[in-house]
Structures are given as C-alpha cells and as structure tokens.
Give the backbone structure.
Amino acid sequence: MSASISAPSHRGWLHQLLSGRPHQEVSTERGGIYLRRWFLVPHNRFVNIYLHKFVGSDDPPALHNHPWWFASLLVSGTYCEVTERDSRWRVAGRLVFRPARHRHRVELARDDSGREQPCLSVVVTGPHRQAWGFFCPRRNGEWRFIPWRNFSGGGCGEADHNNPEATLTNTVSRTGIRSSGVNSVRRNVGANVAGRVNDQPTALFGGRR
Ligand SMILES: [Fe+2]
C-alpha cells in the first residue's frame, strides 16, 4: 500500500458510488494498482464500510498492521493471509475479525497461467486507534517497524538504506513495539493505508481486509 489519497466528499460520494467507479485506487510501493475501494457509507470517524476489490497481492516480505480494528467478509475469490506465524487460505463466505495490531500481508490466488485472481470483500472498520506501517523481517527473527510514510518503493530493502532513523529506533519484536522511538514515530504518522481524509486517517487497511 502506498500513496496518500483522499476519501470522497459527502457531496460527491453517492454520485460516484452510483456510477460504479471506485472512490479510491490504491497502488503498491512498486507501482501498479492493487486495490479498488468503494465507500458504501459516507466516510466518518466512527465506523466505515468499504467494498474492496483486490487485483494484486501485497509485496513480500513486509507485513502491515492497521489503524483500526476491522471485520472482513470475503464475498468472492480466494486469498492467502500471511502472518508472522503461518499462512492460511481464506475462501468466499469467510468472515474474519482482526484487531488493529494484527499484522499480515495478502497473496491472491493465481490461475494456471500465473495471473493473480481478483477477490472481493466487504470490510467494516472501527475508529482510528494507532499509526500504521510495515514490518520487515530481520535476520535475528525480529521485525522492524517502518511507518507507512517512510516505506518507499524499494520495500524492506530500500528502507533499510534510506531511513536510518527507522532502522535505529523502530525495532519491534514479535509481540509488539518495544523501542522508545516508536512513540515519536506515531506522532508523525497521520494516515493509513488508504491514505488521508482531511488529514484524518481513513482506511485500508495498512492495507487490507
Ligand atoms: Fe491488511
């Protein structure tokens, strides 16, 4: 996930929804759209409902957390959810609940020719709870936290070289953030995966679903 993008205004929200065109298109750090999003209710600070069409996978190996808790109903398609612990396939009809601290990445299923197959989900998200970002694996088995703002096109590798502050201060363990530097990072992070809405974090799901 990348890019800071705005939620639709209340005035234009319904018109856009009825047109069938997505309110947002989210690209990966390497470019290329991976998510199309429709706001099923006007964006607000409390509870939001989205229709997500995933057309690409999250770039490995980074995991991401989310600014809010969310519940996701997979309407069609199949994807594999990769976490620190394991990888599990989710199929249509499956409803999952995830706290904001949950870290994952998503891999879409592929057809016989290797093309990723889109999937569709309805996602309900709660109020903003935390800054979100990416977690890059380290050789010692820990995970290094990189705020979304600092996660550039090179993914985990490039961030290592271009963001020495993150390298020094944002170390996390498998059980949570443990360095003192994270607090200052959180203050600096104002948006989430889906981007910003009038400077207020919105959706995605540090990604997704
Ligand atoms: Fe996600």
User: Anything to note?
Assistant: Helices lie at 10-19, 155-162, 164-169, 181-188. Confidence is low (pLDDT under 50) at residues 158-208. The chain has one domain: 1-209.
